[in-house]
Design brief:
Elements (H helix, E strand, L loop, with lengths): L7 E4 L1 H5 L9 H12 L5 E6 L12 H7 L7 E5 L3 H9 L4 E7 L2 H8 L3 H17 L3 E7 L12 H14 L3 E5 L7 H14 L5 E4 L7 H10 L4 E4 L19 H10 L8 H15 L6 H11 L1
Parallel strand pairs: 1-8, 2-3, 3-4, 4-5, 5-6, 6-7, 7-8
Protein backbone atom coordinates (compact mmCIF):
# COMPACT_ATOMS: atom_id res chain seq x y z
CA UNK A 1 0.00 0.00 0.00
CA UNK A 2 1.03 3.56 -0.70
CA UNK A 3 0.43 5.13 2.72
CA UNK A 4 1.32 8.66 3.86
CA UNK A 5 3.64 9.33 6.78
CA UNK A 6 1.22 11.72 8.46
CA UNK A 7 -2.46 12.68 8.43
CA UNK A 8 -4.40 15.73 9.58
CA UNK A 9 -7.48 14.82 11.61
CA UNK A 10 -10.11 17.56 11.54
CA UNK A 11 -12.35 17.35 14.59
CA UNK A 12 -15.92 18.37 13.79
CA UNK A 13 -17.64 17.09 16.94
CA UNK A 14 -18.49 20.45 18.55
CA UNK A 15 -20.38 21.39 15.37
CA UNK A 16 -21.35 18.35 13.31
CA UNK A 17 -21.43 16.08 16.33
CA UNK A 18 -23.71 18.24 18.47
CA UNK A 19 -25.94 19.90 15.87
CA UNK A 20 -28.52 17.09 15.84
CA UNK A 21 -28.63 16.49 19.60
CA UNK A 22 -32.04 17.37 21.05
CA UNK A 23 -30.80 17.74 24.62
CA UNK A 24 -29.15 21.16 24.84
CA UNK A 25 -25.56 21.00 26.00
CA UNK A 26 -24.81 23.89 28.32
CA UNK A 27 -22.60 26.60 26.85
CA UNK A 28 -19.99 26.26 29.58
CA UNK A 29 -19.82 22.52 28.91
CA UNK A 30 -19.24 23.12 25.21
CA UNK A 31 -16.48 25.56 26.07
CA UNK A 32 -14.86 23.09 28.49
CA UNK A 33 -15.10 20.30 25.92
CA UNK A 34 -13.46 22.36 23.18
CA UNK A 35 -10.72 23.34 25.63
CA UNK A 36 -10.14 19.66 26.37
CA UNK A 37 -9.98 18.92 22.65
CA UNK A 38 -7.40 21.68 22.30
CA UNK A 39 -5.13 19.73 24.69
CA UNK A 40 -5.26 16.47 22.70
CA UNK A 41 -2.83 17.41 19.94
CA UNK A 42 -5.52 18.09 17.35
CA UNK A 43 -4.54 20.86 14.95
CA UNK A 44 -8.05 21.63 13.70
CA UNK A 45 -11.37 21.94 15.55
CA UNK A 46 -14.67 23.02 14.01
CA UNK A 47 -16.24 24.63 17.03
CA UNK A 48 -19.73 25.75 15.97
CA UNK A 49 -22.00 27.02 13.21
CA UNK A 50 -23.27 30.57 12.70
CA UNK A 51 -26.66 29.53 11.40
CA UNK A 52 -30.04 30.90 12.40
CA UNK A 53 -30.78 29.46 15.88
CA UNK A 54 -34.29 28.44 14.81
CA UNK A 55 -32.73 25.90 12.43
CA UNK A 56 -30.15 24.50 14.84
CA UNK A 57 -31.05 25.51 18.43
CA UNK A 58 -28.16 23.45 19.81
CA UNK A 59 -25.69 25.96 18.35
CA UNK A 60 -27.55 29.15 19.27
CA UNK A 61 -24.64 30.06 21.58
CA UNK A 62 -22.09 30.18 18.75
CA UNK A 63 -20.83 33.68 19.54
CA UNK A 64 -20.40 33.04 23.25
CA UNK A 65 -18.63 29.73 22.63
CA UNK A 66 -16.24 31.27 20.10
CA UNK A 67 -15.47 34.19 22.42
CA UNK A 68 -14.90 32.06 25.50
CA UNK A 69 -12.71 29.13 24.45
CA UNK A 70 -8.99 29.15 25.24
CA UNK A 71 -7.29 29.25 21.89
CA UNK A 72 -3.93 27.71 21.15
CA UNK A 73 -1.85 29.32 18.42
CA UNK A 74 -1.09 26.05 16.62
CA UNK A 75 -4.78 25.09 16.24
CA UNK A 76 -7.18 26.24 13.54
CA UNK A 77 -10.60 27.04 15.02
CA UNK A 78 -13.21 26.83 12.29
CA UNK A 79 -16.95 27.37 11.99
CA UNK A 80 -19.68 26.66 9.48
CA UNK A 81 -21.09 29.82 7.89
CA UNK A 82 -24.24 29.78 5.71
CA UNK A 83 -24.51 33.39 4.58
CA UNK A 84 -23.20 36.96 4.94
CA UNK A 85 -25.01 37.51 8.22
CA UNK A 86 -23.37 34.44 9.69
CA UNK A 87 -20.03 35.54 8.31
CA UNK A 88 -20.19 38.88 10.08
CA UNK A 89 -20.72 37.11 13.40
CA UNK A 90 -17.86 34.72 12.63
CA UNK A 91 -15.51 37.58 11.78
CA UNK A 92 -16.47 39.50 14.91
CA UNK A 93 -15.31 36.60 17.07
CA UNK A 94 -12.21 36.07 14.90
CA UNK A 95 -12.83 32.57 13.60
CA UNK A 96 -9.70 31.24 11.87
CA UNK A 97 -11.40 29.39 9.05
CA UNK A 98 -14.80 29.77 7.42
CA UNK A 99 -16.54 26.68 6.09
CA UNK A 100 -19.30 26.97 3.51
CA UNK A 101 -21.56 24.09 2.58
CA UNK A 102 -23.91 22.75 -0.05
CA UNK A 103 -25.00 19.48 -1.58
CA UNK A 104 -24.37 17.62 -4.84
CA UNK A 105 -28.04 16.61 -4.68
CA UNK A 106 -30.62 19.19 -5.74
CA UNK A 107 -33.27 17.78 -3.39
CA UNK A 108 -30.99 17.53 -0.36
CA UNK A 109 -29.70 21.03 -1.04
CA UNK A 110 -33.26 22.38 -0.96
CA UNK A 111 -34.05 20.45 2.24
CA UNK A 112 -30.83 21.56 3.91
CA UNK A 113 -30.44 25.13 2.65
CA UNK A 114 -33.90 25.90 1.26
CA UNK A 115 -32.35 26.92 -2.06
CA UNK A 116 -31.49 25.33 -5.37
CA UNK A 117 -27.87 24.55 -6.15
CA UNK A 118 -27.63 27.50 -8.56
CA UNK A 119 -29.17 29.85 -5.99
CA UNK A 120 -26.69 28.65 -3.38
CA UNK A 121 -23.70 29.79 -5.44
CA UNK A 122 -25.11 33.31 -5.41
CA UNK A 123 -25.32 33.24 -1.60
CA UNK A 124 -21.86 31.74 -1.09
CA UNK A 125 -19.96 33.99 -3.51
CA UNK A 126 -19.89 37.10 -1.26
CA UNK A 127 -19.30 34.96 1.83
CA UNK A 128 -16.17 33.44 0.31
CA UNK A 129 -14.95 36.74 -1.12
CA UNK A 130 -15.40 38.64 2.15
CA UNK A 131 -13.83 35.87 4.23
CA UNK A 132 -10.77 35.81 1.99
CA UNK A 133 -10.56 39.60 2.09
CA UNK A 134 -10.58 39.39 5.89
CA UNK A 135 -7.57 37.07 5.75
CA UNK A 136 -9.47 33.91 6.65
CA UNK A 137 -9.01 30.56 5.00
CA UNK A 138 -12.14 29.12 3.40
CA UNK A 139 -13.20 25.50 3.21
CA UNK A 140 -16.08 24.02 1.25
CA UNK A 141 -18.25 21.04 2.15
CA UNK A 142 -20.16 19.02 -0.42
CA UNK A 143 -22.85 16.76 1.07
CA UNK A 144 -24.37 13.59 -0.47
CA UNK A 145 -21.33 12.90 -2.65
CA UNK A 146 -21.83 9.14 -2.44
CA UNK A 147 -25.60 9.00 -2.16
CA UNK A 148 -28.70 11.02 -1.27
CA UNK A 149 -31.61 10.02 0.98
CA UNK A 150 -34.02 11.51 -1.57
CA UNK A 151 -32.41 10.93 -4.97
CA UNK A 152 -30.33 7.82 -4.35
CA UNK A 153 -27.07 7.57 -6.28
CA UNK A 154 -25.46 10.87 -7.26
CA UNK A 155 -23.50 11.10 -10.49
CA UNK A 156 -19.82 11.93 -10.37
CA UNK A 157 -20.51 14.66 -12.93
CA UNK A 158 -22.78 16.39 -10.42
CA UNK A 159 -20.06 16.19 -7.78
CA UNK A 160 -17.41 17.53 -10.15
CA UNK A 161 -19.70 20.37 -11.26
CA UNK A 162 -20.25 21.59 -7.70
CA UNK A 163 -16.55 21.12 -6.91
CA UNK A 164 -15.56 23.20 -9.94
CA UNK A 165 -17.91 25.99 -8.92
CA UNK A 166 -16.73 26.10 -5.31
CA UNK A 167 -13.06 26.19 -6.29
CA UNK A 168 -13.80 28.89 -8.86
CA UNK A 169 -15.46 30.93 -6.11
CA UNK A 170 -12.24 30.77 -4.11
CA UNK A 171 -12.37 27.94 -1.57
CA UNK A 172 -8.95 26.55 -0.67
CA UNK A 173 -9.99 23.08 0.48
CA UNK A 174 -12.89 20.80 -0.35
CA UNK A 175 -14.39 18.19 1.98
CA UNK A 176 -16.33 15.42 0.22
CA UNK A 177 -19.11 14.10 2.44
CA UNK A 178 -20.71 10.68 2.66
CA UNK A 179 -23.72 12.24 4.37
CA UNK A 180 -25.80 9.08 4.83
CA UNK A 181 -22.95 6.61 5.22
CA UNK A 182 -23.61 4.57 2.08
CA UNK A 183 -20.16 4.70 0.49
CA UNK A 184 -18.14 1.55 -0.05
CA UNK A 185 -14.40 1.29 -0.79
CA UNK A 186 -14.83 0.56 -4.51
CA UNK A 187 -17.11 3.57 -4.92
CA UNK A 188 -14.72 5.80 -2.97
CA UNK A 189 -11.87 4.74 -5.24
CA UNK A 190 -13.91 5.44 -8.37
CA UNK A 191 -15.06 8.87 -7.19
CA UNK A 192 -11.69 9.95 -5.80
CA UNK A 193 -9.82 8.85 -8.90
CA UNK A 194 -11.94 11.20 -11.01
CA UNK A 195 -11.78 14.01 -8.44
CA UNK A 196 -7.99 13.75 -8.23
CA UNK A 197 -7.70 13.86 -12.00
CA UNK A 198 -9.07 17.40 -11.76
CA UNK A 199 -7.97 18.79 -8.38
CA UNK A 200 -4.75 18.58 -6.31
CA UNK A 201 -4.97 15.91 -3.60
CA UNK A 202 -3.68 18.36 -0.98
CA UNK A 203 -6.88 20.39 -1.49
CA UNK A 204 -9.21 17.42 -0.88
CA UNK A 205 -10.46 16.08 2.47
CA UNK A 206 -12.87 13.22 3.16
CA UNK A 207 -15.87 13.26 5.50
CA UNK A 208 -17.20 9.77 6.13
CA UNK A 209 -20.12 8.52 8.20
CA UNK A 210 -20.08 5.08 9.76
CA UNK A 211 -23.81 4.38 9.36
CA UNK A 212 -23.12 0.99 7.78
CA UNK A 213 -19.72 0.30 9.32
CA UNK A 214 -17.64 1.16 6.26
CA UNK A 215 -16.01 4.44 7.33
CA UNK A 216 -12.55 3.11 8.21
CA UNK A 217 -12.46 0.92 5.11
CA UNK A 218 -13.21 4.04 3.07
CA UNK A 219 -10.45 5.91 4.89
CA UNK A 220 -7.99 3.17 3.95
CA UNK A 221 -8.82 3.47 0.26
CA UNK A 222 -8.50 7.26 0.49
CA UNK A 223 -5.11 6.98 2.20
CA UNK A 224 -3.87 4.71 -0.57
CA UNK A 225 -4.86 7.39 -3.10
CA UNK A 226 -2.85 10.01 -1.23
CA UNK A 227 -5.55 11.75 0.80
CA UNK A 228 -4.17 13.02 4.11
CA UNK A 229 -7.06 15.05 5.57
CA UNK A 230 -10.06 13.48 7.26
CA UNK A 231 -13.01 14.94 9.16
CA UNK A 232 -14.17 13.02 12.21
CA UNK A 233 -16.21 13.46 15.36
CA UNK A 234 -15.08 12.28 18.78
CA UNK A 235 -16.89 9.15 19.86
CA UNK A 236 -18.74 8.93 16.54
CA UNK A 237 -21.15 11.63 17.67
CA UNK A 238 -23.46 13.21 15.14
CA UNK A 239 -25.30 12.88 11.87
CA UNK A 240 -27.11 15.02 9.35
CA UNK A 241 -30.41 16.50 10.63
CA UNK A 242 -31.75 16.56 7.06
CA UNK A 243 -30.86 12.96 6.21
CA UNK A 244 -32.95 10.34 7.98
CA UNK A 245 -30.88 7.46 9.31
CA UNK A 246 -27.54 9.23 8.87
CA UNK A 247 -26.28 8.27 12.29
CA UNK A 248 -22.71 8.50 13.39
CA UNK A 249 -19.78 10.37 11.95
CA UNK A 250 -16.49 8.58 11.61
CA UNK A 251 -15.20 8.47 15.20
CA UNK A 252 -12.02 10.45 15.87
CA UNK A 253 -10.89 7.93 18.50
CA UNK A 254 -11.36 4.96 16.15
CA UNK A 255 -9.64 6.81 13.30
CA UNK A 256 -6.71 7.76 15.49
CA UNK A 257 -6.32 4.22 16.79
CA UNK A 258 -6.11 2.81 13.26
CA UNK A 259 -3.70 5.47 12.01
CA UNK A 260 -1.50 5.16 15.09
CA UNK A 261 -1.33 1.37 14.81
CA UNK A 262 -0.35 1.74 11.16
CA UNK A 263 2.50 4.08 12.06
CA UNK A 264 0.86 7.14 10.51
CA UNK A 265 1.56 10.28 12.54
CA UNK A 266 -1.33 12.50 13.70
CA UNK A 267 0.14 14.31 16.70
CA UNK A 268 -2.85 13.21 18.80
CA UNK A 269 -2.67 11.87 22.36
CA UNK A 270 -5.17 8.99 22.55
CA UNK A 271 -5.55 9.13 26.34
CA UNK A 272 -6.43 12.82 26.29
CA UNK A 273 -8.82 12.09 23.45
CA UNK A 274 -10.56 9.46 25.57
CA UNK A 275 -10.80 11.86 28.52
CA UNK A 276 -12.54 14.39 26.28
CA UNK A 277 -14.88 11.64 25.01
CA UNK A 278 -15.80 10.61 28.54
CA UNK A 279 -16.53 14.23 29.40
CA UNK A 280 -19.00 14.83 26.56
CA UNK A 281 -20.52 11.37 27.01
CA UNK A 282 -21.42 12.28 30.59
CA UNK A 283 -22.90 15.63 29.51
CA UNK A 284 -24.98 13.92 26.84
CA UNK A 285 -26.18 11.30 29.29
CA UNK A 286 -25.80 8.50 26.78
CA UNK A 287 -22.98 6.26 25.51
CA UNK A 288 -20.98 7.33 22.49
CA UNK A 289 -21.10 4.77 19.65
CA UNK A 290 -17.41 4.52 18.74
CA UNK A 291 -15.72 1.12 18.99
CA UNK A 292 -13.04 2.65 21.20
CA UNK A 293 -15.59 3.84 23.73
CA UNK A 294 -17.54 0.58 23.58
CA UNK A 295 -14.34 -1.32 24.28
CA UNK A 296 -13.44 0.96 27.16
CA UNK A 297 -16.86 0.48 28.77
CA UNK A 298 -16.61 -3.28 28.29
CA UNK A 299 -13.19 -3.43 29.96
CA UNK A 300 -14.37 -1.26 32.84
CA UNK A 301 -17.36 -3.55 33.43
CA UNK A 302 -15.41 -6.81 33.21
Amino acid sequence: MNLPNSVTVKEVGPRDGLQNEKQFIQTEDKIDWINMLSETGLSYIEITSFVNPKWIPQLADAVQVAKSIKRKKDITYAALVPNERGLQAALEVNIDEVAVFMSASETHNRKNINKSISETYIVLKPVIEQALSAGKSVRGYISTVFGCPYEGEISIDAVLSVSDQLFSLGIQELSLGDTIGVANPKQVEEVLTKVLDRFPREKIAMHFHNTRGTALANVLVSLNLGITKFDSSLGGLGGCPYAKGASGNLATDDLHYMLDQMGIHTGIDQEKLIQAAIFIEEKLGKPLPSHTMQTKRSLCNS
